[in-house]
Amino acid sequence: MIVTVPNPVLTTPAKKVKKIDRKINSVITRMMKALLNQDNPKGVGLAAPQIGLSYRIFITHPTSSSKIEVFLNPEIVWKSETLVEIERAEKEDKKSLKNDKKLEGCLSIPNVWGHLKRANAVRLKYLDGQGNSQEKEFKGFMATIVQHETDHLNGILFTQRVLEQKEKLYEIEVDEEGKEKLVEIKL
């Protein structure tokens, strides 16, 4: 089950994984099941705090055909200066406003979306699911996912980033005819 705001686990920095044991593997399995079972909207990444557990773990699944990747104790060691708005790798539902290529959302903040600029490329140091030390550069949509999920591990929600950039937050309302429309959330 995915934890939603205002649960404090979402705004508290997560604890470092000290060793990969049966307990941590169980957490990763729970995260994978939660992400794969998520629908409307589909998720592209999930951090351990989003299932209520304070561990520095996140997983990514940018498209329905991609393999789930596991990241433990991730640390962004470099960001490009070029900022971009989200560009989805795949649109599962082309008619949905939620899949507007410029809107970022979060499974822990249901039905809230916002325009957010993030670094176009990042370099990440982390341990993979087998405990191997890795350092890899991510670009485009994957860079956005990495930044979003790393923020989760630091207790930062995407809505905070949107407000820092003085952008607007939106929710989707459905009219009498079943059409979706974006409505600005007044703060």
Automatic annotation (TrEMBL):
InterPro entries: Peptide_deformylase, Peptide_deformylase_sf. Its cofactor is Fe(2+). Fe cation binds at residues 106, 148, 152. One of its GO terms (molecular function) is peptide deformylase activity. Its EC number is 3.5.1.88. It is an enzyme of class 3 (hydrolase). It catalyses: N-terminal N-formyl-L-methionyl-[peptide] + H2O = N-terminal L-methionyl-[peptide] + formate. The keyword Metal-binding applies. GO terms for biological process: translation. Binds 1 Fe(2+) ion. It comes from the Bacteria. The active site is at residue 149. Keywords: Hydrolase, Iron, Metal-binding, Protein biosynthesis. Removes the formyl group from the N-terminal Met of newly synthesized proteins. Requires at least a dipeptide for an efficient rate of reaction. N-terminal L-methionine is a prerequisite for activity but the enzyme has broad specificity at other positions. Belongs to the polypeptide deformylase family. This is Peptide deformylase. It comes from Candidatus Gottesmanbacteria bacterium RIFCSPLOWO2_01_FULL_39_12b.
